[in-house]
Structures are given as structure tokens and as C-alpha cells.
Amino acid sequence: MKIACVLGPKFEDSEFKEPYDAFRQAGHEVTVVGLEAGGELYGDKGKVKAKVVVDRNLVTSRQPSDIPAFVRESLKVLEQVPARR
The whole model's pTM is what? Predict the structure, then answer.
């Protein structure tokens, strides 16, 4: 499956490399997308405190210590996408 890794400014190498490697190892084709604008992850009530937020097919996390949860939840989302024939 084709997926995108969206990178904001000042990302840490580990924030990208670990998920990228895990997605590739799971057999996915990964495209890297860079963003010009950055910022915190906010919800309706202010800053989100959850390690990972899943909104339909968008999975986001906050910091390098959240990477294992980010990878786990991302792979769950990818498992739900129907295979193309």
C-alpha cells in the first residue's frame, strides 16, 4: 500500500526513521512529504495529551517516546484498508 509520512520543521531523525523502517518492513511504499508550517497538536479543548491521535486515516504523535505507539496504531489503520486487486 502507498502511504505518506508528513514531516514538520525540526523533526528528529528518530521520529522519522523508526516509523519509516517499520512501514517499509511491513511491505508498504512510503512517500515523504515535508511541511513548511509547524506547531503543536491541538484539539477542541487545547493541547492533546494522548501519545497518539487517530482521526480516520491520519495518525499523529507528539514526540520520540511516542514512536512505538505511533507505529502500532498506524499499522492498525493500514490493516483496515481494503487490498486493491
Answer: 0.61
